[in-house]
Amino acid sequence: MKISKIYSNKNFKNIEFSEKFNAVVAFIESDKKDDTHNLGKTSLIRVIDFLLLSSYNKNTDKLLGNNLFIGQDFYGELKLNSGKYLVIKRSINTATKISFKLNNSKLDSFKFDIDWDEELTLKKAKAKLNQYLDFNVLPNWDYRKSITYFLRSQQDYLDVFKLNKFKGKHKDWKPFVFDLLGFNGTLILEKLEIEEEIDDLKKKIQTLRLEAQIDTSEKDRLEGLLEIKKIELLENKNQIDKFNFFKEDIHTNKQLVEEIDLKLQAFNTDRYRISYEINKIESSLSEINDDIDKKEINSLFEEVNLYYPEQLKKEYEDLINFQKSLTTERKEYLTETLSLLKLDYTKLNEDIKELESQKSDLLSLLTEKDSYFKFKEYQKKTIGIEVEIERIKDKLKAIDSTLILENNIKDKREIINDKIAELKKSLTARKHSNINKIFNSIIKEILDTNALISLKLNKQGNVEFNADYQNKTDLLKTSESQGTTYKKLLCVAFDLSLLINYSDKSFYKFVYHDGVLEGLDDRIKIRYINLIKDFCEEYNLQYIVTLIDSDLPKDKLDLIEETDICLRLNDKENSGKLFLNSF
Question: Which first-to-last residue range defines the signal peptide (predicted)?
Answer without folding.
Answer: none
